[in-house]
Amino acid sequence: KLMSLALQPVITPKLMENRAHLECSYERPPSRQLLHYEVLWSRLSDAGAKEEIRRDTTQQPFSHLEMDGVHLRLGDTVFCTVTVFMKDTPDQQSLPEESSGFYAGIKFLPESLQIAEDGKEHVLTILSTVPITCSGNDDSCKITLQLSTEDLGKNSQPVGPPNVALSSCQVDLRVLPCTASSCAAAALAVTAVTDFAQDGDRVTRIRARAAGRSEPLWRDYAPKDVQVTVQDLPTGNCYSFTDPHIITFDGWRYDSFGTGTFLLCGSARRAFAVHVRQRQCGRPGASCNCGVAAR
pTM of the entire structure? Predict the structure, then answer.
């Protein structure tokens, strides 16, 4: 008789003998008899169908599968399905129980960003869900990711100047004890470029490529791009002209006839300031701009 035994299979990453593995673990049902487990490893194909990788029969409440870069590659979403049977009656099995899908590779959190041209920094977390192997020296116990951006126009074609700034062009994912969700992590700040142009909302792709690794597992691996949508915001303007008349960002008008160096505008939140130098010119009591410095 088929029955459900609440095996609750779960896939977690494991580093074994300096090789990256996945472990499918499950609950051992209460029984006085010797139980056997059949574990079916599968992954999602490009077409979205599940295809078998390997089938194990074991007496242990776990099964291991190596990330070898051939049968199981980075970027695969992996499942394990477990059934139980007794040695003397292998044709009488429990109902199969399947784990949740485990994505093996590098993940970005969040997977996409919606930001605005307001100068705010947004944190992008980068995780490796699989163990990083070491070749013996500490410098090798990491994955270096080279980062780049590509701005897209209509029909997803590259266009225009950079629309997104990154806090770094590369990050190191260093070895950490594996948890259920990651074996290495790094963080990156993403900011929209304020371009003083009314060019509408634009989309940028952030790309990451693993550098300096020769193992088959990491060779030619390309993580999924992160899509960043940048909201265009209206641009403010201020003016200082003739002798000089000032018009502020909010439209207030006044005159400034003094001579010397003055702060025309500045930001309390970031390192931005514009100084003007005024000297006497034209009629008595009037002054003109004769110099400007911007930071």
Answer: 0.75
